[in-house]
Amino acid sequence: MAVPAGERIRREVQDYYGKELQKSEDLQTNACVTLARPLPTFIREVLKCVHDDVVSRYYGCGLVIPECLESCWILDLGSGSGRDCYMLSKLVGEKGHVTGIDMTDAQVEVAKKHIDYHMKKFGYQVPNVDFIHGYMEKLGDAGLKDKSYDIVISNCVINLSPDKRAVLQEAYRVLKAGGEMYFSDVYASCDLPEDIRKHRVLWGECLGGALWWKDLYRIAEEVGFCPPRLVTASRITVNNKELESVVGDCRFVSATFRLFKVPKKEPAERCQVIYNGEITGHDKELEFDANFTFKEGDVVEVDAETAAVLRSSRFAKEFLIQPAAGRVPAPGGCCRAKAKEKILDPFRLVELLEAKDPAPRPVGGCGPKGCC
Question: Do residues 331 and 274 touch, judged by C-beta distance below 8 A?
């Protein structure tokens, strides 16, 4: 009996990351070696505590670190050897919790092996992290309940799923009202042709399963999320002649998006907001997405969608929020910040970022940055 395409893809990916790859240097392309902004000092310090074995077996793209994490419950889809989970377990604190789920037995075993090591490093009496073997398209089968997490993260693994809609549906299901899915992944400039989608190495190296970025917007809203909010993006180049000939004119970016599960009862109105500057590591300003950077004390007028996101999410306590028609006091006499050009297209964002800084620095000191 023929194996269904989705199951065949899962088996090939499991083999690729469980057997063929033993360390990040085994990757055959640079497709997922992403460029990013310098890491905050407190993040670099946490990463120094992560066990070397975990770091060496990690194949994720850069780092996926949302803000305002104290006491949050976080789910990491495709957690691999657990690097991000252990980092986040320190950031959420003892009252928070981090769950990692991965379909590769070998990676889950590496992650589980080092739980005690990291809890002792962080001084926790009871572990606040656990790892589960399972599929991100079937979180219910792994025992994950409705409305049980504040944040779902994912680091360059959704492209490996043959059913992206199921992944987003499950993430939406397990998120609490006001919860967020914050994730980095690879996106294509077009709907990819079959010869790319069926190429085994391109699948394993995160290109063959890349979603057309416009489809992300469509699927996310159909599932129930607010429209995706683009955070950052960087260009992917394929410096492999054989693979370049297969890819042809298709272009790829690594991009980070945030999706919010906003309750339908939230009022739709423009608001003025003031950031209080109290989020750890973001005391001067909060780069919320490509369109909004909130400086401490500045009055910023936001659209109805952004206002609803801030009001319903964990960020509500970090802002003074009032209707735009009202009068908001501006501490220190600060003026209202001008709204930037609204950017939805990650390829457009790459152009703007490269024009501003033609040679951005790669993230340093955070271990391997290979794919998935």
Answer: yes
Consecutive H or E run containing 200? helix 200-204
Closest CA to 318 of 35, 42, 69, 77: 69
Beta bridge partners of 130: 99
Which pairing describes strands 97-102 and 129-133: parallel, antiparallel, or unpaired? parallel
Which contiguous run of DSSP H or E holds residue 111?
helix 105-113
Instruction: Quote the pTM value.
Output: 0.86
Dihedral pair phi/psi, residue 97, rounded to 5°: -155, 145
Which helix (H) or strand (E) covers residue 100, if one does?
strand 97-102
CA distances from 212 to 192, 194, 216, 348 (A): 7, 13, 7, 14
- HEC profile of 47-85: HCCCCHHHHHCCCCCCCCCCCCCCCCEEEEECCCCCHHH
Q: Answer for the pair 87, 47: CB distance below 8 angstroms, yes or no.
A: yes
Task: Name the residue type at position 32.
Answer: C
Read out DSSP for 294-346? EEBT-EEEE-HHHHHHHHHSGGGGGEEEEETTS----GGGPPPBPPPPP---H
Q: What is the distance between the alpha carbons of residues 212 and 93, in angstroms, rounded to a whole number?
A: 37
- Residue 364 scores a pLDDT above 50: no
* 131-171 tens-digit pLDDT: 999 999 999 999 999 999 999 999 989 999 999 999 999 99
245 CB-near residues (< 8 Å, 6+ apart) = none
pLDDT band at 340; cut points 50, 70, 90: low
